Structure prediction request, 373 residues.
Amino acid sequence: MPSSTATATDTGADPARRPRVLVVRLDSFGDVLVTGPAVRAVAAGAAHVTMLCGPQGAPAADLLPGVDRVRVWAAPWVTETARPIDDALLGEFRALVTEEQPDEAVVLTSFHQSPLPVALLLRLAGVARVTGASVDHPGSLLDVRLRPGEDLPEDLPEPERALRIAAAAGFALPPTDDGRLVVRHDAVAPPEVVALGRYVVVHPGASVPARAWPEDHHRALVAAYAERGVPVVVTGSPGERALTAAVAGDTALDLGGRTSPAELAAVLAGAEVVVVGNTGPAHLAAAVGARIVSLFSPVVPAVKWAPYAPDVELLGDQQAPCRLSRARECPVAGHPCLSTVRVEDVLAAHERLLGRAPRMNTRSLRGPAAGAA
Prediction:
């Protein structure tokens, strides 16, 4: 459904003719981080970029280059706490959009999400041009539509999927941008971390239990690093303080609940290796260029959600029975996809990462280079 509205590819370098763009991504911290390359593509052709996020994702948007303003709105079909869909909700959304005055919106969604609910609200709020990827026929809700499984491949890493949607709207990365995940570096690690010099980060938490390496495995890993004289920093959110304390014990530095997202980025950037599951900080580690041991449960596909970075060792049985189930609680007794990963496997992956040439680019889980669409 092509649109006659001028796009970034039409307007050249004249800032006065560039559009104000609302980029929408309404879910979690990691989901917002992986849109970073697409946001930079939009910013390269826009006069102003507002990013509309849910409460969980907004702190990630604050870290993304190219974002001029972050607005927070809890969508009732995304947030775990349901909101009534009533006139007050619609009025709140309309007021937000009216304040931002976007010429167009680019709705970024994952493979299992639809842009149509928010596209309807954008239409009601008067946004003239809306782009998104939709399996369902959008009618007049989308001006530019990509069709997953047809003109949008299903097996793209999430950053590349978002880039394809931005490109369909007319926004491309500059030739000097390699399309990797990037965040702003405007914080420093806590002094006790800096004082360690060499250290490893172990992040034991995950958004759902099905994606978590067992707690006792994490404790054993911290002990194994201690035996080798390698300092460990254990990180986690405020809600994970009990977990990080249990994993750190008396051996590691426990930062659970003690860092802002920007400070956590600095901690991850300084680590020799980051050991992390499929959770938001894995994508943050990728964005700061860390070497990553990824403890990845196959409940979602690694090709889409593994850390989008050059130095990644992926551990976990990707053919386990829970594969692609999107389960929150492990459906298989014993959680074999991750419980079978041994401490020795993590240490060996660590050594393989250190043995590589600095920041060697391996793309075993990736499709074409980001931005190639």
Summary: The first helix runs from residue 8 to 11.
